[in-house]
Design goal:
By secondary structure, this protein is mainly α. It has one domain: Growth Hormone, Chain: A. The chain has helices spanning 13-20, 22-43, 51-54, 57-74, 85-101, 108-136, 142-169, 183-206, 215-225, 228-240, 244-274, 284-317, 322-339, 348-363, 366-372, 380-387, 389-410, 417-432, 439-442. The longest helix is centred in the last third of the chain and has 34 residues, at 284-317. Mean pLDDT is 83; it is low at 1-6.
Length: 445
């Protein structure tokens, strides 16, 4: 633990809630993107095997954007907006616009471009939110802080994933002519855009940030190191000097995010085809089934919310072994994914995705709690951005053929085997936690 950490005051639940509330909107964007962009791609005529490639621009952009945003936010201080909040605002404006217009795409290239802009914009806001928790909380509250974020993310996942279904229930059509995205999806994305902007603005208005301890020295250091080339050199230097815990967590993250990218890319075609026997994207059967997939994805968000509530209560009372919690949670999620293959009736999918929700809650909290205890607080933003490399690299590998090659080689040609692949990957991620041995990272301070 770093010496300065002990000087940070303990914050109340509502203070942590306010500083994390913007994640509600961020997750609205991610849930709508993850749950329904593949549906949009299929509606616009994409072949199932081509779907992962249409997603590739998003993680490629994240690979570049996240470290740069983290580096810049570490070196930003505004007397009114602080260090991280300027990036919240920039990302919120761009994300809101992209989220609103994405379902109005009339061609695949437009939808892929909208996804690219949306993902890049959300990322501009997301990692500074992670860094803000580490900025404001003492080490003893880190697990608690990231778990509260996960609670808010779970709420956002559940509500946003069910929005198209809800729109259908109130009478908005969920079918349209060939090549046109249904109105239920368009309305859902519009609601998501409003929530995204409003929730991030709430955090900006209700949360203060701690200024640098020596503002003059902070300004001098930034003046000496400013410039694009100096910035890149500093980022590469930090990558080369990343702590061992970060490298070990990188292996866990690789297999975790490969699994979830597989789900986002293939859950809709896999479940609509295997469970509902529906493949015609213009049919009522397919679109009802696609709405139902949103319900199941909402289940993993809902369960992640309840699991986060349990973790929030536990971490506020006792110290936990972060590594063991994460390992068992990921293995549970892997079992949930594999179980989808054996589903006989649709309601059983809720049980499968409930297990996935346990893994999701842990993915969004435990790695960041472990990492934040192992890096220099002055470099928290850039290291949170660099850590994102271990999220986007597996997505790039998956999009470039890793999913299609792996599931067909290991299991078979049917698209449902993508869920078996996701489960296998998540179990490997869980076991990889055994590589982490640094007690200061694995246990609460």
């Amino acid at each position: 633990m770093h010496a300065k950490e002990s000087k940070k005051p303990t914050l109340s639940f509502w203070q942590i809630w306010n500083m994390s509330f913007g994640f509600l909107g961020i997750q609205f964007g991610f849930a709508l993107q993850g749950g329904f962009m593949s549906r949009i791609f299929q509606t616009l005529g994409a072949d199932k095997d081509a779907i992962p490639l249409l997603w590739i621009a998003a993680p490629l952009t994240g690979l570049l954007v996240q470290p740069i945003v983290g580096y810049l936010s570490d070196r930003t201080w505004h007397s009114r907006f602080g260090r991280r909040r300027p990036f919240f605002l920039i990302g919120a404006v761009m994300s809101t616009i992209a989220l609103f217009f994405a379902p109005y795409s009339s061609a695949l290239w437009m939808a892929a471009g909208a996804l690219w802009i949306l993902d890049a914009s959300i990322n501009i806001s997301m990692e500074p939110f992670r860094a803000l928790v580490a900025d404001k909380l003492p080490d003893s509250q880190r697990s608690y802080g990231f778990v509260v974020q996960t609670l808010i993310i779970g709420i956002g996942t559940w509500v946003a994933s069910n929005l198209p279904w809800f729109m259908t229930q109130i009478g908005i059509p969920n079918t349209a002519e060939a090549g046109v995205v249904p109105d239920s999806v368009k309305f859902a994305f519009a609601v998501g855009a409003v929530v995204l902007f409003g929730s991030i603005l709430y955090t900006i208005l209700t949360t203060d940030e701690y200024p640098p301890e020596d503002l003059d020295a902070f300004k001098r250091e930034n003046e000496e190191s400013k410039g694009f080339i100096n910035g890149l050199q500093e980022i590469f230097k930090n990558i080369a000097g990343m702590p061992p815990v970060m490298k070990q967590l990188g292996i866990v993250q690789f297999f975790s995010w490969f699994a979830f990218f597989t789900m986002w890319s293939f859950a809709t075609p896999a479940i609509t085809e295997h469970v509902f026997k529906a493949t015609d994207t213009t049919s009522q059967v397919y679109n009802d089934a696609a709405d139902s997939v949103g319900n199941y994805l909402g289940t993993y968000g809902l369960v992640s919310m309840f699991f986060a509530l349990i973790l929030a209560f536990v971490t506020s009372k006792v110290k936990i072994n972060r590594k063991m919690v994460h390992m068992l949670s990921l293995i549970a999620g892997g079992v949930g994914f594999i179980s989808i293959y054996f589903v006989q009736t649709p309601w059983m999918l809720h049980l499968c995705f409930a297990l996935v929700g346990v893994a999701w809650a842990s993915i969004l909290s435990m790695p960041y709690a472990m990492l934040s205890s192992a890096v220099n607080p002055k470099q928290m933003g850039v290291y949170m951005g660099i850590f994102n490399m271990f999220i986007v690299i597996p997505q790039i590998v998956a999009a470039l053929g890793g999913i299609n090659f792996s599931y067909k080689l290991l299991f078979g040609e049917e698209v449902i085997y993508t869920m078996v692949l996701a489960g296998t990957s998540l179990i490997i991620a869980g076991l990889a936690n055994l590589l982490i041995t640094d007690r200061s990272a694995t246990h609460d301070g």
